């Protein structure tokens, strides 16, 4: 069998796994989605109000906080994984909770990675709106928190785009989750870690099947971002 035949054979096998809804494949995808969606929701709960507050209110050190948020957007995943590992390990402050090598540990690692992204992007969106509407708010005597609520609502499409950007970052993560999750079969094995493992083992069918699913998710996220931007543009001109 030639190399090309091997490739097409593996690709055909991968499509067969996807079409047949292979149980192992579905288990890995399901765990990946649960971990990622939970991490993104928690990141948004923390990051959206934090970014909005930094983008709206003037306080001492505001510029420094904005710089830190922007810098944390580029956190190396393996460093995050190492830090979370140290916190959750038996000798760490959260060691008694026995969270290491569980889906919860993976959620924490992804949340730490995504929260700065959500907060920094939210800060920029809200800061731009605040600059645009500041005189109007001042003339109407709108309070600080009413101002913040109004801008969050007005920026809802952009903030949904921010959440999707966070989801795209989290679902493709491998470095941090493999450190704190351990890539344990039927426990903490997600799409990215499985692709890395199965490729190293030569099991290209499962790796390609998961790769196809990840590509489909990436296309869906990008399509969602474009649809939200188009909807926001139509709303602006309505």
From TrEMBL:
<protein>
    <submittedName>
        <fullName>Sulfate transport system permease protein CysW</fullName>
    </submittedName>
</protein>
<dbReference type="InterPro" id="IPR049783">
    <property type="entry name" value="ABC_perm_TupB-like"/>
</dbReference>
<feature type="transmembrane region" description="Helical">
    <location>
        <begin position="64"/>
        <end position="88"/>
    </location>
</feature>
<dbReference type="GO" id="GO:0055085">
    <property type="term" value="P:transmembrane transport"/>
</dbReference>
<keyword id="KW-0812">Transmembrane</keyword>
<feature type="transmembrane region" description="Helical">
    <location>
        <begin position="100"/>
        <end position="121"/>
    </location>
</feature>
<dbReference type="InterPro" id="IPR035906">
    <property type="entry name" value="MetI-like_sf"/>
</dbReference>
<keyword id="KW-1133">Transmembrane helix</keyword>
<dbReference type="InterPro" id="IPR000515">
    <property type="entry name" value="MetI-like"/>
</dbReference>
<dbReference type="Pfam" id="PF00528">
    <property type="entry name" value="BPD_transp_1"/>
</dbReference>
<feature type="transmembrane region" description="Helical">
    <location>
        <begin position="157"/>
        <end position="184"/>
    </location>
</feature>
<keyword id="KW-0472">Membrane</keyword>
<feature type="domain" description="ABC transmembrane type-1">
    <location>
        <begin position="29"/>
        <end position="225"/>
    </location>
</feature>
<comment type="similarity">
    <text>Belongs to the binding-protein-dependent transport system permease family.</text>
</comment>
<dbReference type="GO" id="GO:0005886">
    <property type="term" value="C:plasma membrane"/>
</dbReference>
<keyword id="KW-0813">Transport</keyword>
<feature type="transmembrane region" description="Helical">
    <location>
        <begin position="204"/>
        <end position="228"/>
    </location>
</feature>
<feature type="transmembrane region" description="Helical">
    <location>
        <begin position="36"/>
        <end position="57"/>
    </location>
</feature>
